[in-house]
Design a protein that fits this description.
7-stranded mixed β-sheet, 39% helix, alpha/beta
């Protein structure tokens, strides 16, 4: 397989967050199996793009063939996402659903994402399964090929408030390592398999 690149995207944008720590945990697990297949990982932190609620005068589907983005934040996000062959989205769940910042960032673009493979890793007080399913539905509908395995990382009960406050406790990290490593590795294998497949109508995502 020719060299491929995958963006590991921290999708949390809260001022107090554990997203970067979760992404680091995921990266340590997937780095070896992906790099051994010639797949490089780039860390992308959504918060650095400072995206407002979508404010472009054109629809994302029009870019680039029929229109161009007006604002620099949109152009920067578009250029970043466009350069990768696939994605690992590390997403938080808030109040039993996808975070507004996560959905806004996804909705900023269409053609930059379309047809490419993506894995979803969610986390939260209850693991983020609802947010993961919502993001899966959105990405599949937009034409991405989503990895079947979607790990859900639940905060250990003693660590819930420290996690909400921006720090993952040792109990949570140890539990994830013991209980979620296999699922994260499987998601990486799923993603690797999707990267091997050509982007053709035959491999289009199923509803």
């Amino acid at each position: 397989m020719a060299s491929k690149s995958v963006a590991l995207i921290t999708m949390s944008t809260r001022g107090t967050r554990v997203g970067p720590t979760v992404s680091s945990f995921v990266e340590k697990i997937v780095e070896k199996p992906l790099s051994s297949a010639g797949i490089t990982i780039a860390n992308v932190d959504l918060v650095k793009f400072n995206l407002p609620v979508y404010n472009e005068p054109v629809a994302p589907a029009m870019v680039p063939e029929k229109a161009q983005f007006k604002y620099e934040h949109s152009r920067a996000w578009s250029a970043e996402i466009k350069q990768y062959d696939g994605y690992i989205l590390v997403i938080p769940e808030y109040n039993y659903g996808v975070a507004g910042g996560t959905k806004n960032a996804i909705d900023y673009l269409l053609n930059e994402w379309k047809g490419k493979p993506a894995a979803i890793v969610s986390y939260g007080v209850h693991g983020g399964a609802t947010a993961s399913e919502q993001v899966r539905g959105a990405l599949s509908g937009m034409g991405l090929r989503v990895a079947e395995t979607r790990p859900t990382l639940t905060f250990s009960q003693p660590d819930v408030f420290s996690a909400i406050g921006g720090r993952l406790g040792d109990a949570t990290l140890k539990a994830w390592e013991a209980e979620q490593t296999a699922a994260i590795l499987k998601a990486a294998e799923d993603l690797k398999g999707l990267l091997l497949q050509p982007n053709t109508p035959a491999n289009a995502p199923k509803p």
